[in-house]
Design brief:
The complex is a heterodimer. Chain A is an alpha/beta fold. Chain A is built from 21 helices and 23 strands. Chain A has a domain of about 35 residues: Monooxygenase (Up-down Bundle). Chain B has six helices and seven strands; from the N terminus they run αααααββαβββββ. Classes of the chains: A alpha/beta, B alpha+beta. Chains A and B meet through helix 18, helix 19, strand 20 and strand 22 of A and helix 2, helix 5 and strand 2 of B. Chain B: This is Auxin-responsive protein.
C-alpha cells in the first residue's frame, strides 16, 4: 500500500520496507540522541518548547541541570520535570551577598534540594552549590543517598563543618572531585581526611584551600600517593613548605596546584628540595595560592613557568621585581590573577611577555586604606589591552581612570566579553579632565559587541546608561554603583539591553517610576537587585500586584524592628530584590525580609 | 513615558545603608545616591582630613589603626584620611578581606619582610629572621631558640625574665644588635615597634 501518511498514523498495514518513517514519528530515543548534541541548556529549552513529543524526549533525557536561582522553581518541580538528571548545579544568594549586603539568614538553604534529589534522582553523580547554606545534615544525606556520587563542588557556601566533610569522605566510595572554594567551614577538629578508606583511590580533584584548621599530613600523603589519577590538588595554609615538596614528589602527574602557605624562612636545602619537586611536575599547568610567598622561594617555580596557562597570585603579597620576573617567564599564560602590587610597570611586562592572555584580574591589596598608594593606574590596563590580542575578560581595581584610556582600550579590544572596572573611590571623575567617565564606558559598549558582563564605576551620569541601553545588545549582567543622576538612567537600561538577565544596583538615585514603567522587562530577566536607591514601599507593592510571576522581596535594616505591613506606601525601601519564579512566594524568609 | 530631567529625591541618610552613627558632618559630600559631586570632588576629598578633624578621629577609632592618625596632621598633599567605610564597598569578597587582614597583620602595611642577620658565637653559619613576623621580644626570643636549638634554650628566671641560656653549660647568652650608628646595643631596651 501507500507509504505511511504524513498525518503520522502508525498504519495497520506495513509500508514497503524501503520507505523510512517520516521524521516526526521517530522514537524518543532518536530525539534524545539528537538533543544530546545541543550545546547549551537554552537550546534544549527551545527544543522542548517546540511540541509535546520533543518536550517529552528532551526532559526525560536531560542529564545536566543548572538552576541559576534556587527560588525560581521548587526542588520538586525540578525533579518532576527532569527525572534523569545526573548533575545539578544550584545557586542561591544574590551576588551582592559576597559584599555583605544581604542580611544574615536570608535563605538559600540547600536542604530542600538535597532532600528532593535524594528522593527523585538516586543516580545523581554531581552536585554544585553556590552561595547556599549547606549543613552537615545535607552532606550526610548526600553521602547516604547516591550510590554513584562522584563530584561535590561548594562555592561561597556556609553552614557546614569538617564533620560533614567526614561523612562525604567515609560514604562516597566513588568520589572523584571534592572542590571547596571560598567557603566558611567550621573546624570541628575532626580528621575528615582519615575517613577516606585505604581502598579509596578514585580522587581526581581535592581542593580544601579554604579550610582553616590543620590536616593530618601523613594521612594526606598516603591519600595523594594512592590516588594515581589526582590532577588537581589545592592545599590550605596548614601545609608547611617542606611537606609541599613531599606531596609533589608523590603526585608528579598534577595539573593544577594550590600551594597554600608558601612561606618559610629561606633555607637553601629547602629551596633545592622544592625546585627538584617542581621539576618533576611536567604536567603542571595551573598554579594558585602562595599566600605569604617569600620572594626568595619564587625561583623554585621557574622550571614550571614555561608550561603554565593559569596563574592565580591574587593572595600573594610579593611585590615588584621578584613578582615581575616570575610572571614574565610564563609566556603561555591565558589566565592571570594578581594583586595591584604588580603596578603599572609589572603590567607593562605582562603585556610584552604574555601575548596569549585571555583573562586578567587585578585585585586591591589595600582596598580600605587610601593612604597605602600603589602605582597601579589606567596605564597598566591600556598596555595589556594593547598587546594581548586574545584578552576578553577583565576585572580591574584601580584608583584613577580617564576617558581617553577607556576609549583606547575599547578600540584595541573589541573582543571583550567581560569588562569589570572598579574605581575604588565612588564618584571619581576622569582625573585629567574632571569629567564624568560617560564617554569612556560608552566607547566600551559601542565597540565590544559581544560584551556579556559589565561593571561600571567612577563618576557617571545618565548619559552612559543611554549608551549602554542602546548598544549593549548581548549584555547579560550589569553592575552599577554610585552612578547616574535621575530615574532616566534606570529607564534607559530597562528599556534597552535586549539580553539583560541580571541587574544589580546600589547607591544610585533611581526611583519608582522607571521600575513600574518597565515592569514587564523584569519577567524577561532572572533578577534585579536595588539597594540604597530611591524606592518606596508603595511602588514595590504595586509591582508585586502587577506582576504575579515575580517575587518582590523587600529587605530593610535588620535592626529596624517594625514589620513591613505597618509601614505606609511612602516609606523608603532599603533593598529590593525581584526575581521571576514559578514557585510562588517562599516561606523561609527571616524577619527583615518580606515578600510584598 | 518619562520626560523628567530633574533629579529625583534622594534617600535620607537614615535609610542610606551606612552602618555608623556619624552625622552629616562628613557625609554631605559623599552621601550615596546623592547628585554627583561637582568636578572638584577629588580635591575636596583629599583636603577633608583638615576640614573635618572630628569625624576623622571617629573614623580612626573604628577602622584605621592608631599609627595612621599621625597622617591626619600632615601637609596638604598628604593621603586622605581613612574614610568612614561604606558597607560592601569596594566590592571585595569577605573571604578575600579576611585573607588580606590575616596576611597583612595588624599594621595593614604590605611591606616586604624585614630580615635581619643573626650570628651566634660558635655557630658555623648565620641565620636570618623576619622582624615583621614577631609581635614582641618574647616571640623573637622563641624564634631564635627554634633556629639555634642546638645552642641554647630559654630559661625562665625567678623574676619572670626570659633569657637565652646555653643548653650545655648553662652560660647566659645576651642578644645584642648593631644599630645604624654602628654601636652594639642590648636587645630589649627600645619599644618593639
Amino acid at each position: 500500500m501507500a507509504p505511511a501518511a504524513p498525518m503520522g498514523r502508525g498504519g495497520s498495514r506495513a509500508a514497503p520496507a524501503a520507505a523510512a518513517p517520516p521524521w516526526h514519528v521517530l522514537p524518543d530515543e532518536v530525539w534524545e540522541h539528537a538533543f544530546s548534541f545541543l550545546p547549551a541548556d537554552s537550546d534544549r529549552g527551545a527544543a522542548a518548547a517546540a511540541c509535546r513529543s520533543w518536550l517529552r524526549a528532551e526532559r526525560r533525557s536531560r542529564r545536566r541541570l543548572a538552576v541559576a536561582n534556587c527560588y525560581a522553581a521548587s526542588p520538586q518541580d525540578a525533579v518532576d520535570r527532569f527525572p534523569a538528571v545526573r548533575a545539578v548545579e544550584v545557586k542561591g544568594k544574590p551576588h551582592f551577598a559576597d559584599f555583605g549586603l544581604v542580611p544574615p539568614a536570608w535563605g538559600a538553604a540547600a536542604a530542600p534540594w538535597v532532600a528532593a534529589a535524594a528522593d527523585g534522582w538516586p543516580l545523581l553523580e554531581e552536585i554544585s552549590f553556590k552561595r547556599m547554606v549547606v549543613t552537615d545534615d545535607c552532606l550526610e544525606m548526600i553521602a547516604a543517598s547516591f550510590r554513584n556520587f562522584q563530584v561535590l563542588r561548594l562555592v561561597s557556601c556556609e553552614g557546614f563543618s569538617t564533620a560533614g566533610l567526614a561523612a562525604i569522605a567515609a560514604g562516597c566510595r566513588n568520589l572523584r572531585e571534592l572542590d571547596l572554594q571560598e567557603n566558611e567551614i567550621e573546624d570541628c577538629s575532626i580528621h575528615w581526611l582519615s575517613l577516606f578508606p585505604e581502598s579509596f583511590t578514585s580522587l581526581v580533584t581535592l581542593n580544601f584551600s579554604c579550610l582553616e584548621g590543620d590536616v593530618n599530613i601523613t594521612v594526606l600523603e598516603r591519600l595523594v600517593t594512592r590516588c594515581h589519577n589526582l590532577k588537581t590538588l589545592k592545599l590550605n595554609n596548614a601545609i608547611p613548605l617542606d611537606k609541599l615538596a613531599n606531596l609533589l614528589r608523590k603526585a608528579p602527574q598534577i595539573v593544577e596546584l594550590g600551594t597554600g602557605r608558601f612561606s618559610a624562612d629561606y633555607h637553601p636545602d629547602l629551596f633545592s628540595k622544592l625546585e627538584a619537586a617542581f621539576a618533576g611536575c611536567k604536567s603542571l599547568r595551573r598554579l594558585s595560592g602562595a599566600w605569604d610567598a617569600v620572594p626568595e622561594y619564587l625561583p623554585a617555580f621557574y622550571c614550571v613557568c614555561d608550561g603554565l596557562t593559569s596563574l592565580n597570585l591574587s593572595y600573594t603579597t610579593v611585590r615588584g621585581p621578584e613578582l615581575i620576573k616570575f610572571i614574565s617567564r610564563c609566556k603561555k599564560l591565558q589566565l592571570l590573577w594578581v594583586m595591584d602590587l604588580i603596578e603599572d610597570r609589572g603590567l607593562a611586562v605582562v603585556a610584552s611577555s604574555c601575548n596569549k592572555l585571555q583573562e586578567l584580574r587585578v585585585f586591591p591589596s589595600a582596598p580600605f586604606d587610601a593612604a597605602e598608594q600603589v602605582s597601579l593606574t589606567e596605564r597598566g590596563l591600556v598596555d595589556v589591552s594593547a598587546s594581548c590580542p586574545m584578552l576578553e575578560s577583565v576585572l580591574y581595581f584601580c584608583r584613577r581612570m580617564t576617558n581617553e584610556a577607556l576609549i583606547t582600550i575599547a578600540k584595541n579590544r573589541p573582543n571583550f566579553t567581560c569588562f569589570r572596572l572598579c574605581i575604588i573611590e565612588p564618584h571619581t571623575p576622569d582625573y585629567t579632565t574632571h569629567q564624568p567617565l560617560d564617554a569612556g564606558f560608552s566607547a566600551i559598549v559601542e565597540s565590544c559587541k559581544g560584551l556579556r558582563r559589565l561593571s561600571v564605576s567612577g563618576l557617571l551620569t545618565d548619559i552612559v546608561f543611554k549608551s549602554i541601553g542602546a548598544h549593549a545588545d548581548r549584555l547579560e549582567m550589569l553592575s552599577i554603583a554610585f552612578a547616574g543622576n535621575s530615574d532616566l538612567g534606570l529607564h534607559y537600561i530597562l528599556s534597552g539591553c535586549k539580553s539583560l538577565k541580571k541587574l544589580e544596583i546600589r547607591d544610585c538615585p533611581f526611583g519608582d517610576k522607571p521600575l513600574l514603567a518597565n515592569a514587564a522587562k523584569l519577567e524577561t530577566m532572572r533578577s534585579l537587585w536595588m539597594s540604597t536607591c530611591s524606592l518606596t514601599l508603595g511602588a514595590c507593592r504595586q509591582l508585586a500586584r502587577k506582576m504575579p510571576r515575580l517575587s518582590v522581596e523587600v529587605m530593610n535594616d535588620p535592626r529596624r524592628r517594625c514589620p513591613l505591613d505597618s509601614l505606609t506606601d511612602e516609606s523608603p525601601v532599603e533593598t529590593l530584590y525581584v526575581y521571576r519564579t514559578i514557585a510562588g512566594p517562599r516561606f523561609d524568609t527571616p524577619a527583615c525580609v518580606q515578600i510584598v | 513615558m518619562l520626560v523628567e530631567t530633574e533629579r529625583s529625591s534622594t534617600e535620607s541618610s537614615a535609610a542610606s545603608g551606612l552602618d555608623f552613627e556619624d552625622t552629616a558632618l562628613t557625609l554631605t559630600l559623599r552621601l550615596p545616591g546623592s547628585a554627583p559631586a561637582p568636578p572638584a570632588v577629588a580635591s575636596l576629598s583629599s583636603s577633608s582630613s583638615s576640614a573635618f578633624p572630628d569625624a576623622d578621629r571617629k573614623c580612626a577609632s573604628s577602622d584605621a589603626d592608631p599609627d595612621r592618625s599621625s597622617l591626619l596632621a600632615a601637609s596638604s598633599d598628604a593621603a586622605p584620611a581613612p574614610k568612614a567605610r561604606v558597607v560592601g564597598w569596594p566590592p571585595v569578597r569577605s573571604y578575600r578581606k579576611n585573607a588580606l587582614a590575616g596576611v597583612a597583620g595588624s599594621s595593614k602595611a604590605n611591606q616586604a619582610a624585614k630580615f635581619v642577620k643573626v650570628a651566634v658565637d660558635g655557630a658555623p653559619y648565620l641565620r636570618k629572621v623576619d622582624l615583621q613576623a614577631y609581635a614582641g621580644y618574647d616571640q623573637l626570643l622563641r624564634a631564635l631558640q627554634d633556629k639555634f636549638f642546638s645552642h641554647f634554650t630559654i630559661r625562665k628566671f625567678a623574676d619572670d625574665e626570659r633569657k637565652l641560656v646555653d643548653a650545655v653549660n648553662g652560660t647566659e647568652y645576651v642578644p645584642t644588635y648593631e644599630d645604624k650608628d654602628g654601636d652594639w646595643m642590648l636587645v630589649g631596651d627600645v619599644p618593639w615597634k
